Amino acid sequence: MIKNEEQFISFLTSNYDSINKIPKNWLGIGDDAAIIDIDSQSLIFCADAVVEDVHFRKYTEFFDIGWKSIVSNQSDIAAMGGYPLAFTITLGVNESIKEQQLIDLYNGMDSACKEFGGHLVGGDIVKSKNIFISISAIGKNFINKKIMTRDTAKMGDVVAVTGEIGNSITGLDMLENNNIISNKQTKKFLNPVPKIIESKYAVESGIVCAMDISDGLEKDLKRICESSNVKIEIDFEKIKYDKSIEGYFNNDYESKILTSGEEYELILVGPISKINVLKEKIDLSIIGKVTGNKKPEIYFYKNNKQINLTSESFDHFGK
Amino acid sequence: MIKNEEQFISFLTSNYDSINKIPKNWLGIGDDAAIIDIDSQSLIFCADAVVEDVHFRKYTEFFDIGWKSIVSNQSDIAAMGGYPLAFTITLGVNESIKEQQLIDLYNGMDSACKEFGGHLVGGDIVKSKNIFISISAIGKNFINKKIMTRDTAKMGDVVAVTGEIGNSITGLDMLENNNIISNKQTKKFLNPVPKIIESKYAVESGIVCAMDISDGLEKDLKRICESSNVKIEIDFEKIKYDKSIEGYFNNDYESKILTSGEEYELILVGPISKINVLKEKIDLSIIGKVTGNKKPEIYFYKNNKQINLTSESFDHFGK
Does domain B16-141 have CATH number 3.30.1330.10? Predict the structure, then answer.
């Protein structure tokens, strides 16, 4: 039985020729994006969707929905070591949508394109009970053929993360409880920034293992462990986060930080020498290490004591 | 106010920089697919979605939904003069979907890929009230830079169409009324064939004006008229169709044929000399002529008398 995204991907890759028999040098299903080689030019190709009542709700402005739906694709491209070129937008709309909301939605998408790159070149508009925005993107690698993937973490590598973690889940909670209208946390949740420049520096530094945080640091690190078949140990105290989160979530804050999704920060894994060079150029924290290569394992420590997570990262296959 | 797809496209292209300020040699929103130039290689990029209760219903097998959702994208690529390389699949699913249905869906997509080209390389799976399948595709031109578009119809050109027209709407009607389970018409509606080979021959023959029939011959010809700013006159008697349709729809059959959507046949417009060469190689009927270039107009004649259409082509913006 298929219970989660990983099982679904494994089911797909083991059963269908059009999925597993892809051309040499291509990268198919299972990473942040696919890589397709066309005339020895590596292209990045990905898709991401948001759905009403799942990814956004009544309090979400359409500008923000548009912005975020583009950013999540830009972030997938950044995670592969590239920059965005073009997007297609497929809109599912019902009678409840107002013209001004459509204008706002496209304003948000247009702004994210202007800010971080890429053009809106096509799409489709269809009727649907709940509104959805399904986007696909083409990107290009900063250095041709130099891609970053999840399956290249090596024993002895260090694990680093850009920016602060935890603001997204905090912002969402604030918005749901109407506590605060606009601050760093709500801004992070509503208008995240894809790490395009950070990706460029990472590729130039020779980093080959990366992914973006879309479902939470814990869950996304697990994916690196599984893809690379490595053991990773994280020192929670090295994770950079806004100290106000401790008070906001009280006892629960560690779990909240580790399961905060839609952060769009980059996890970068590589030799300490390369990560240290990179740390000079971008906002980066070394938070852990690859300490084994026998089987996929992930451990989080605080004051040398293991943390047991109390909340689950978001899974679209979950209940 | 935005009332239909054309107005929506016009609204988008006039208001957003990321849509209208695209790089030189690119083709953005408004044709069957976009063209993006990467290192002087022309790539085709498009997206198409199907939604439960809009594009498919209870009687539709998931194999057929999968097949058709891939074919509609392959057809868009064929319409631009290319062949498919890669697809991303974004699925919106709810609790009602069964594992066997997912397997069937991917069987259908996989089969269409094996038959007509392209690989499934990525996507997303999200929760949604109604099931939707949103697909995007990358294709490559048969001859680099030789694209076919809607805006290149010229005064004096002839208008030609591949295959038979009208089977799709007839098949749909048969399925809705449970009249017949499997025949040429239902097969055409459920398992249409993208005109990839026909596209190749068309490009090689020097044809530069084409589109696929997704919303009906009348509506799609109108789009060529509008994009190329030409007048087209069609002789209904030259349209190839299965004669059984006359009896099936009685008095209404001309309108049904002219508004039959999801045919995925190609409309090809060009000089008679080139079309005649092409006619030797593929199943093609010359059905009309470009007779003016002052404003967009379309007329249908039968026995030299103008046909007044009694039914409207499908419009996702319509009520």
Answer: yes
